[in-house]
Amino acid sequence: MRTFAFAYTPYYWLTVTSLAALLFLGGLLCSSFWFSDRWEDLFKENIEFLVECDKGVKQDQLNVLEGRLNQIEGIQNLRFVSPEQAMELMQKELGDLALPEGMANPFQSSFRFTLDPAKVDTSYARALNDELVQLDGVSAFYYPEDLYSSIRSRLRSFSLITGAVAGILVLLILIMIHHQIRMYIMQHRYHIRTMTLVGATRKYIRKPFIGEVLKMSSFSILVAGIAYLLTLLWIGNLAGESLFATNLDMAAVGMVFIIALGLLLSFSAAWAAIQRYLESTDARDFI
To answer: Is 243:251 a contact under the CB 8 Å cutoff?
Structure first.
């Protein structure tokens, strides 16, 4: 018996694209929920704090202050920034129009550092502020008081929005795959009838349809997987580290979820459509 010849219509590519979008969002959603604490730590590690020194502070005072800061629990990546370095950095960020070269340097010596993720908390930052402003040579302590809460709320909003969109897409994808298979069945109903008359089993009849849907889902999985990995690479660049080196399990879990969800949705929708059609034609001829 000859095999089926499937036509790739615009509806087919719409189904493939929609499934790829669903799997991409599903992978991000899985990573967001499964590793929510790690995502938070990733952003916490990049929140920078600044200790501004008094104007005209001497080098020996700076050395003492640096040693004192190194002794404080939770402080990481401590570095000294001179007024000249601060001016150069701000010129790069704001441009020469905002800070022309002939302008007097308004900056003072400072120390910048990050905190251990477990210590990134508003209450701890306030306690640290009370401690640091009492040190000799320190004029002010600056920290983004609302940054962490803002990041946390954005992560939660992103997860909720992604979950809502993914839920809607799941229903749409199941319906689209179901109708795609029904279109294939109607195109080949006489062929199926002939196969039934010569004794072909339901398993043999299902095989080409299931295979076609799995091929369609494989392409969607490939597109979604590439988009997911590129997104992790982009986030890693923003965070200043490689997620594939430090959080390989995060990338692996997302990819496994994308593959499993793609195969499960495609197989279940195709199986339901074919089974329904075969059962509806047991007692009467194909229409």
So the answer is: yes
Q: Do residues 17 and 211 lie in contact, with contact meaning Cβ atoms separated by under 8 Å?
A: no
Distance from the first to the final alpha carbon of the chain: 22
Q: What is the pLDDT of residue 283?
A: 39
**DSSP structure class, residue 176:** H
Residue 77, sorted as left (phi over 0), alpha (psi -120 to 50) or beta, turns out to be left
3-state secondary structure 222-246: HHHHHHHHHHHHHHHHHHCCCHHHH
HSE of 136, CA atoms in CB hemisphere, 13 A = 8
User: For residue 164, what are the CA distances in angstroms to 25, 49, 159, 161, 227?
Assistant: 10, 36, 9, 5, 20
HSE-up (13 A, CA, CB side) for residue 81: 19
Quote the tokens at residue 45: 């590690």
Q: Is the pLDDT of residue 105 over 80?
A: no
pLDDT digits (tens, 9 = 90+) for 162-174: 667 767 777 777 7
Average pLDDT value for the chain: 77
| pLDDT tens string 272-283 | 777 777 776 543
Write down all domains in the chain, each with its CATH number in brackets: 10-41+149-280 (no CATH), 48-143 (3.30.70.3040)
